[in-house]
Every structure is written in structure tokens, then in C-alpha cells.
Amino acid sequence: MSSHPSEPADPPGEAAARTEPIPAHSPGPFPSAPAPAQPVPGLEPPPPAQQAREHPGGDLLSAAGPDAAAEGPPPPPSVVRELGSPWDGVLGTLAWVLICLAAWALLTVVAGTIVVAAAAAAGLTTLETDKVPPGILIAATVAGNLVFLAVPLAFAAITAPPRLWHFGLRRTRFWPTLGWAVLALFGWFVFSTIYQAVVDPAGKQSTADDLGVNRSTTLLVVGGFVVIVLAPIFEEFFFRGFIYRTLRNGLAGKLGLGAGVALAAVLDGLLFGVIHGTNTPIAILPVLAVLGAAFCLVYERTGSLFAVIALHATVNTLGYLGAAKNSAPVALGFGGAMILACIVVPRLIGRGPPRAEAPATA
Asked: How far apart are CA 292 and CA 241, in angstroms?
């Protein structure tokens, strides 16, 4: 439970729920996906008055606003539902994630095709060219990022009404979160340094060159916004907020928490690396896969997506500094703004559903 001095006291009964240890099958910041007919101890939904206080804007995709609680209490939900697969078991979870990825890939191709076709119709490019102009590629990239948002919301709605905390958009304790983020970033830098010294991979990511960031100041700024601001937000929402959490909840229920978290992190990291294979040499993909797995573990330990968004923005800022000429003001400006936003924004939103605190470990 947060100890922020400005937060109001917990309602009677909630404090007691938060002090009870999480059941042995579900430690950590995430509640496990509950069985449909069984409530989960410590995960009872907050009273309507507290929901209005902690979630003044209502649930994600909900039409209810801040005055909804005053109109009368809603029907009491039986359980707090988590993201997960509608199919049971390891194979069911994996099949569900593969379908989600296939939908994402298809919609990304469709969105990019529409952008290029519209540009060609306007005389800005031709369909015969092998090289899409940077401005058109930026527009197609933005459209692809929107698909990163649309697919999780659509598929999550099949199993539970999407809420901010489902995707890790929630408040968390600052100093432990900072500690896990720094530890993960340091560990990844050590691995990356050793890997590059041993393997000596040739080539580099071509994202900055494809966006034409070295051709003009305008493209430098717009490219920096796409790489440092948009990519961390939308990619983390998709890969960690949705794919990892869905894998984690489905696999942990059958394999146990430790094995479920580890396998989900490895699979998500591999997917994260493969997705970047279109503009990254194969020899560099293991570095990105380990980075994606590290992001999963930070998300697991903190329960907040803001930590990994800040980490992703930091890594992209450093990469942009190396790939784009004279990019220090742009890269550091966008990178600093992202880190500041990831510190401030969580303080403005709720913590998610009440949950028991994890028991202290030595």
C-alpha cells in the first residue's frame, strides 16, 4: 500500500485486506487470474465511493464518469477479473497469444498499405518504388503504433472489460521501482557489452536512417518523437502490458508462479526481438530479446508499466544519440520528458484494485 502523505486513509476493512499475505500460489504485484465462480481473498473491489476517488475518470472504455457513484451503487461484481486467455491450459494460452499476434501483423500490414496507397493517390510517392519516402514511412509507423494499442484493447475485452490497471497503468512505490529499473538496465548493459565483445555483430538498426532523421531538422525532430516517445508507449503497452501479462497469468496457473513468470518473460523477449527483425541484423536480435525479457521482470517486480516505458525511452534515447547527427537537444529533450512523465503521471491515477501486500522475504 502506498504511503504517499497526500493519499486519504483507507476505508474500514480495506487496510485489513492489504495486510493479509497473498496466497502461496499468487505472490508478487499481480493478482492471479481467478476462477470464474470463486472470489479471490484480498482482491475484493473497492466501495463505490473509493472507486470514484481513485478512478475519477471511470474505467478504461467505460462511459461512467466521476458522478456515476452518486447515482447509486453498481451491481456487486463477483470477482476481480484479470487479463488472460479464454482457453485453459498452456496450449490454450499460447494459441490465444498467437492469434493476437496474427491479428496484429495483419492489421499492421493493412494500416501501412492504406497509408502508402493514400500517399500514392495524392502524388506523394509511387507504388512501384522500393524505398518509401521518410515522411510516408513515419506516417505508416504511427499507424502501426495505433495497432499496438487497438489489438490489446479488442482482445482483452473478450475476457474482461479493459481497465487501466489490467495493463500496468497504475501507481507504484517510487524508490523500489527505481531500484529494479536501474538494476535491469545495468544488467542489460553488461550483457550487451559482453555479447558484442564476443560475437562482434556486424551492422546496426536502420530505423533512424529509414526515417531520414539526418536529412532535415524537421525529420530529426519528428523521428525523435516517433522513436523516443511513441515507440516506448505503444510497444510496452502491447508487449509487456498485454502479451506478457496474458502469458504470465495463463502459464503461472498451470506451471506455478516461478516457471510461469520465467517462461512468459523468455517468450515475450523472443517475440520482442523477432518483431524488430525487419530493421535489425539477426546477430543483434539476441540483445533485443534479453532487453525485452528484462523489461518483463521489471514489470513483474513493480506491477507498473510506467517503469518499463521509462526504461524503453532511455534505451531509445541512447540509440538515437548514436544514430542521428546533432541529435542531443532532441534526444535528451524527448528522453527527459518521457522519464519525467513516467514519474508524474502514475501519481495522478489510481492504484488498481485492492490487493494484499506480498509477504516480506529475506
From this structure: 12
What is the per-residue pLDDT across 153-201, written as a single tens digit (0 to 9) for each?
A: 999 999 888 999 999 999 999 999 999 999 999 999 999 999 999 998 8
Contact 159, 84 (CB under 8 A): yes
What contacts 75, CB < 8 A, 6 or more positions away? none
Q: How far apart are CA 47 and CA 53, in angstroms?
A: 10
| Domain layout of the chain by residue ranges | 14-72+79-348
**Cβ-count burial of 331 within 10 angstroms (0-12 exposed, 13-18 middle, 19+ buried)?**
buried
Task: Give the residue among 169, 162, 167, 157 at the shortest CA–CA distance from 86.
Answer: 157
Cβ atoms 356, 334 nearer than 8 A: no
Nine cell digits for residue 1: 500500500
CB-based contacts of 187, cutoff 8 Å, min separation 6: 294
Q: What mean pLDDT do residues 335-362 have?
A: 74
Q: What one-letter code names the amino acid at 187?
A: G
d(CA 234, CA 309): 9
Q: Is 182 left (phi over 0), alpha (psi -120 to 50) or beta?
A: alpha
Distance CA(242)–CA(135), nearest Å, equals 30
Q: At what angle do helices 174-199 and 285-302 cross, to 10 degrees?
A: 160
Residue with cell 539477426: 282
User: 225 is written with which cell numbers?
Assistant: 518523437
Q: What is the three-class DSSP state of 55?
A: coil
Cβ neighbours, 10 Å, residue 276: 18
**DSSP tag of 162:** -
pLDDT in tens, 119-144: 888 888 776 656 788 899 999 999 99
C-alpha cell at 140: 505508416
Alpha-helix runs per DSSP H in the chain: 14-19, 48-54, 89-121, 134-159, 174-199, 207-210, 217-224, 231-236, 245-255, 257-275, 285-302, 305-323, 328-344
Q: Is the dihedral of CA 294, 295, 299, 302 positive or negative?
A: positive
**Assigned C-alpha cell, 213:** 532523421
Residue 248 contacts residue 240 (beta carbons within 8 Å) = no
Phi-psi region of 256 (alpha: psi -120 to 50; beta: other; left: phi over 0): left
